[in-house]
Design goal:
The complex is a heterodimer. By secondary structure, chain A is mainly alpha-helical. Chain A has helices at residues 2-32, 39-57, 82-87, 89-96, 98-120, 130-152, 171-174, 186-208, 210-220, 222-227, 232-254, 264-279, 284-301, 304-309, 313-328, and strands at residues 60-69, 75-81, 168-170, 183-185. In chain A, strands 1-2 form a two-stranded antiparallel ribbon. A two-stranded antiparallel sheet of chain A has the order 3-4. In chain A, helix 1 packs across helix 9 (210-220). Chain B has a domain at 30-263. Chain B has helices at residues 8-22, 24-27, 36-59, 66-83, 88-110, 115-134, 138-141, 156-160, 181-204, 206-216, 218-223, 229-253, 264-277, 284-301, 304-310, 316-327, 334-348, 352-369; strands spanning 147-148, 173-174, 177-178, 256-257. In chain B, the strands form two sheets. In chain B, strands 1-4 form a two-stranded antiparallel ribbon. The interface between A and B is large, with 40 and 47 residues.
Chain lengths: 342, 382
Amino acid sequence: MDAIALQVLNGLDKGGAYALIALGLTIIFGTLGVVNFAHGALFMLGAFCAVSVKALLSLEAVTLDPNKLTAWGTPMEIRVPYVETWFGEFGATLLNYSVPVSILVAIPMMLILGIAMERGLIRFFYKRPHAEQILVTFGLAIVLQEIIKGIFGANPIPQPAPEVAKGMIDFGILVGFDAGNVVYPAWRLIYFLFSVAIIGAVFSFLRFTSFGMVVRAGMADRETVGLLGIDIDRRFTIVFGIAAVVAGLAGAMYTPILSPDYHMGMDFLVLSFVVVVVGGMGSLGGAVAAGFLLGILQSFASMNEVKNILPGIDQIIIYLIAVVVLLVRPRGLMGRKGMMEH
Amino acid sequence: MSFFKTQPKDLILLLCFAVVVLLAPILFAPIGAGYPDLLQKFAIFGIFALGFNILFGLTGYLSFGHAAFLGVGSYSAVWTFKLLSMNPLPAIIFATLVGGLFSALIGFISLRRTGIYFSILTLAFAQMSYNMAYSVLTPITNGETGLQLVQSDPRVLDVAFGRDYGAVLPSSDLFGIGMTGYPGYYFCGFMLILCFFLTLRIFRSPFGMMLRAVKSNQNRMNYTGLNTKPYALAAFVISGMYAGLAGGLLAVTDPLAGAERMQWTASGEVVLMTILGGSGTLLGPVIGAGAIKYFENIFSAFNDQILAQVYSFLPEILQQIMVAISSLFVGEGWHLTLGALFMIIVIFLPGGLMEGFKRLRNLISGKFGGGNGSGRATAPAE
C-alpha cells in the first residue's frame, strides 16, 4: 500500500507537466484546428525563462579583498550578486526563489511570444492542409530549439529549487502511513499543486467568463459564432497566447525537477501528443485526466517489481497504451463523438 | 501489359538519370562534391527520400517515423555481416526484407487512422523503437555504443566458402571489391538507379494511379466500394523497404549501426528532403536529398575563421556582427538552417523545387508563347 501511494505520488508531477502541455495543445487544436508541433518548444522556452532569470539575478560584482589571500598568494576575489548589494536581504531571498520569481517574467514573455506566433505564422495556415500545418510548426520547433542551443549551449543547466522546498516531505504521516515510508521531494509536490492550480484557473476561465464562453462556443462551431457578429479571430489569438503561457509556466516550474536543455521540449511533445490522443482530441477534461493517468502509469511501470516481469516496459508503456486506445476507442477516453474519428 | 514496357519519354528520363548518377564524380566535382563519401550519402538518402515519396507524395499520408525503418535496416545489415557474410548483397536483401516486415507491422496499426492521427502514431512508434533500441533491445542493438563488427563474428557463409579475413577487422566487399570509396558509391548508385526505375514504374502504373486517388479523395474511393487500405498499406510497406535498403546501404559503406539513426529528427529530415525537392514528383526527392546533404556538408564545415574571411570586405564592426549572426547558422548550428529552410519551403513553396522550376518555365514560356497557367502541383493531403 505504501509502495502504491509512493508510485502514485511519483507520477503526479510528471503527469502534471503532461497535462499542462496537453491542455494547451487541445485548446489550440479545438479552437484553431491547428496541430501545433511547436508546443513542446514553448514548454522548453518557459524553462529557459527560469534559466535566464536565475542567470540575471546571479550576475556578480567581483571585488578584490587585499586583506585576505588565496592559497596562491593573490588577493581573494569576493563575489557578491548585484541584487544582494542593491536590495540586501530581499535580494538574497529573490535569488533563492528564482524559479517561482521567473513565473512573473514567463507570463508576459510567453503571452507576447504566443500572440506573435499566431499572428505572424499560424494564422496563414488555417486554410492549408494539416500536413503543412504539422510541417511548418515542426520547422518552427527546430528553429526555436536551435536558437536556444546557440545561446545557452547543449548541456543541461541545473536550476535549484528554493531552500525551503529542497527537502523531503514525509507525506505518509499526513495520510496515516508509518513515518518514513512515503517520503517525497517537496518541490515535486509543489509542482503538482501548481499544475492543479493552473488547470483549475484555465477551466474556470473558460467556464465562468463570457470570454471563455465565446471560446467554448467557437470550439463547438466556429462559423456560427462568427455569424453572430463576434470577432472570433481576435479571441483565438488570445487563446493561443494563453496556451503558450500555460506551456511556459509548466516548463519554468519544472526546471528544479529536470535540468532544462534544448531538446526537452521535443521529448515532452511526443508524449503530450500521445496524452492528447489518449484523452481525446478536443476534450480538455480528457487531456488533463489522460496526462495524470499516463504519468502515474509510467511511474508504476518503472517500479523494479514490474520491470523484473516485463523488462523495458517503463520506456514504452505510454506508446503501448496509445496504440491500444487508438485501436479500441479511436476518439480517445473522453473525446467527443465524431471528433477526428476516421 | 508488361512491367518493363517503359514509354520512350520515361526511358529518356531514366537514361539521363542513370548518366548523371554514373558521371556524378565528374559532374559534381566543380561544386566540391565529387568525392565518394558525400556521393554515397547522396545516393543513399536519395533512395530513402524516393521511398518516402511513394507514401507521402502519392497517398498523402505524412509519416513521422520513417527513420525507424532506416535504423532497422542498418541493424539487420550489420547482423548479416556478423552472422552470414561480409558480402553486401545478403546484407541489403535482409535489410530490405526486415524493413518491409517492420513497416508492415507498424503500417497495419497506423493506417487504421488518417491525417494527424496517422502522423502522431508513426511518430510514437518511431520514438518507441528508438527508446527500445536504447533499453530492452540492447542485446540486439548494443545500446548507446552502437552495433559493431568484431573479429570473432561467426560469418557462417564466409567460413563455408573458405574466406578468411585474417587478424584484421573485415570490411564489407562485393566478391573482393571493397565497399569504400568509389566502388561503394557505384554500388549505392546502381541501387539508386534501380530504385528510381521501380519508382518510375510505380508512378506510371494503375497502382500508382490508385494511390493518387487515395490522396485526392479517400472518401469518394470508399463510396465507390473500393477498400483503399490495402493500397495504402502496400505503399507504406514499399516505402519501408526503400528505407530499409537505404539503412542497409549505410551499413554497407560504414559497417556500424546506432540508434540515433532512428530519432525523430532523422524522420523529419527525410520529410524535408521530400518536400524541398517536391513531394509527388519523380525527381524531386532525389534532388532534395542531394541538396540537403550537400548543404549540410558545406555548412557544417564553416567556422568563425572562414566566416571572417567571407565578410572581410565589410568594416571591422559590421564584420564581427555578421560573423556572430552567421555563426549561429553554420557549423554546429546547421540544424537551425535546416529548420528555417523547412519553414520557408512550407510557407512559400509547398510544391518544392520542382514546382519552382515549373513556375520558372511557365514564366518564360508565358512570355514567349502565352502558355496556360499551371495548376498547383500538390493536391491537399487529406
